Amino acid sequence: MGPVHDPPGVHLVRGAERSDEVDALATRLGGRVGLDGVLADLNRVAEPVRVPGLAVHAGFRWQHDDQTTRRWWPQGITTSADAGPDETFAGRRVVMTSAYSQRVDGVSWGSRISVVDVTDPQAIRYRHVLLVEPYVDGDGRGAARALHVHAGGIVWHGEHLHVAGTRRGFCTFRLADLLRVPDDAGLDVAGYRYVLPLRFGYDAVTADGHEQLRYSFLSLDRSTTPHELVAGEYGRDAMTTRLARYEIDPETDLLRAEEDGSARPLLIDERGIGHMQGAVVVGGRWYLTTSAGRYRLGSVWSGTPGALRRHRFAIPVGPEDITYWPSTDELWSLSEYPGHRYVFAMRRAWFG
């Protein structure tokens, strides 16, 4: 089997729609507010700063408690440039990031996204939103529990947000389902004012004799027609570091499915790089981030699998996911370690 091959043993199966559970939760909380509601109620302030890394030309850091917390670790990034061709939402330039909760004092709070308005780079504001699994409780009321996924990568495409779930596949949310939690709601959502309930999952399926694909990170390739979802594996030592591509159905903004309901990769490429944290494709050219521990600056690799060029010291310590903003020809990424958490942009031309 060659380094690039047809992957009959690996595919995704879309799970059941949780529309009844989402509706019940929305009824309990007084109705949906959508992304507009969150953007109208941003409560935190980010600071534009000079970000370490030879390739970085702009960026910001979170406010102090988010910059230093040991609980929440940033992972994924996507933007309104992924969402649609005009690259804005309601006239705003928006960045979304994801984070997962470490267990602190014996408790993990699951996963969350952060909605960031970067329209004015000197006045950046944001708010955190908890990701939840909706269900109907014993009294027939809508309820929610924290969703526990690593959230290593995210893609905002159309009205949906896809969140990487490693071995489970990935989770899909509808941004119109965003809900505001009143003080008297009686829900255990770790004090979060806004929650985003899971719509359905894409479950990873692996045939006998094949290695399960880990969905460590996600990105969107808008340079293809139709658009394609890019997924890849973080791996070290003898672990696989594969890259996969899925076609997106332009009518639904979801993965194109076959008659049996399964979504199969267009290809799997085994020529990824160890310690990959994110990958994005622009016009057939790949850009990958790799980490080098908590004390050394990260790298960006550019080119094509099997012929990638490493750009050392390009980005901060602890880099994670990566995405592309076409109108500015910028690559955006973020970093995870406490005290060194940044969201930053790089000019793609810097990589040659």
Entry summary:
The protein is mainly beta.
Helicity range = under 10%
Any idea what the CATH architecture is? 6 Propeller
N/C terminus separation: 32 Å
Could you list the spans in which at least 5 consecutive residues all have pLDDT below 50? none
- What's the alpha carbon Rg, rounded to whole Å? 19 Å
SS element count, helices: 4
Overall SS class:
mainly beta
Tell me the number of strands: 28
Q: What can be said about the biggest beta sheet? A: 13 strands, mixed
The backbone outline, from C-alpha atoms, is globular
- CATH topology label: Neuraminidase
Whole-number total of structural domains: 1
Mean pLDDT: 96
Explain this structure to me?
The chain is mainly beta and about 350 residues long. Helices cover about 5% and strands about 45% of the residues. The protein contains four helices and 28 strands. Strand 8 (about 110-115) and strand 9 (about 125-135) form a beta hairpin. It is globular. The relative contact order is 0.19. The mean pLDDT is about 95.
List keywords for this structure.
352 residues; mainly beta; Neuraminidase; 13-stranded mixed sheet; six-stranded antiparallel sheet; 4 helices; 46% strand; globular
